[in-house]
Design goal:
The chain has about 260 residues and is α/β, with parallel strands linked by helices. The protein folds into two domains: about 170 residues, 3-Layer(aba) Sandwich (Rossmann fold); about 80 residues, no CATH class. The two termini are about 35 Å apart.
Length: about 260
């Protein structure tokens, strides 16, 4: 089953081509990675998929529906969620409140019911808090259940952002550099977390520079170079591709 289909997608910024006639598909329930040198168009592609950027040309289908013209909130309502390369944490809130914020699509946020504190609103908020606690435990943040976000270490914040994205109950989860800045132990924990998320039925699309993580966790890899598809396939296929070795992985990668 195809979760996401990208057809001849292009994006230009003032005449500079960031993504050029890119086509690929994402199979549901698997872990897909997108790799490439700096400037290859990886984050731009994420922004196009999630609706932060409008494409210059091309089409994006999510779960069989054309979402090319839909704003980010509409795509989120259909089951897309993402994290960002640079942390987007609410540091004036607790860790638990950050995860609860990810449930906003499932909570009645209308002003009048909230002001009146209707029983339905109270029940929904209580359920959101319980779900947030469960998600924090599931990503290994049980020791931070009562912590303020600004008191948490960087590695824990990376997992907090993943927990907040999971709070939206996504069908498709896009992770932008989830292991950036992490030490080997933290990276190993992220590796295991990504595999657990996919095992639970969520399709994962990963942009990551840590090649050990990418090669170990991915069912399928797409390699970009200057916004174009350079290669794609399994980890072993990509690792052995001469064009990939020349452009990105380096001559020593083939022997690894």
């Amino acid at each position: 089953m195809i979760a996401l289909a990208v057809n001849r997608l292009s994006k230009e910024f003032g005449g500079v081509v960031a993504v050029a006639e890119l086509s690929f598909t994402i199979e549901a329930g698997r872990i897909h990675s997108i790799i490439g040198p700096n400037g290859a168009g990886k984050t731009t592609l994420f922004n196009l998929i999630t609706g932060l950027y409008a494409p210059t040309a091309g089409r994006i289908e999510f779960a069989g529906e054309d979402v090319t013209a839909l704003p980010p909130v509409e795509r989120a309502m259909r089951g897309m969620a993402r994290t960002f390369q640079n942390l987007q944490i609410f540091f004036n809130m607790t860790a638990l409140e950050n995860v609860m914020a990810g449930r906003h699509l499932h909570i009645d946020t209308r002003l009048l019911p909230s002001l009146l504190r209707l029983p339905s609103v109270t029940r929904a908020n209580r359920a959101a808090r319980a779900t947030a606690r469960e998600l924090m435990v599931s990503v290994g943040l049980e020791s931070y259940l009562d912590a303020d976000a600004d008191a948490m270490p960087y590695g824990a914040l990376k997992r907090l952002e993943i927990a907040r994205a999971l709070a939206a109950d996504p069908k498709l989860l896009l992770l932008d550099e989830p292991a950036a800045g992490l030490n080997p132990k933290e990276t190993s924990e992220i590796d295991a977390l990504i595999q657990r998320i996919a095992a639970g039925g969520t399709t994962v699309v990963l942009v990551e520079h840590d090649m050990k993580l990418v090669m170990g966790v991915s069912d399928h890899i797409l390699v970009l170079d200057h916004g174009r598809r350079l290669a794609e396939g399994t980890a072993s296929e990509v690792r052995a591709d001469p064009a990939v070795i020349r452009a990105y992985l380096g001559a020593g990668a083939h022997a690894a």
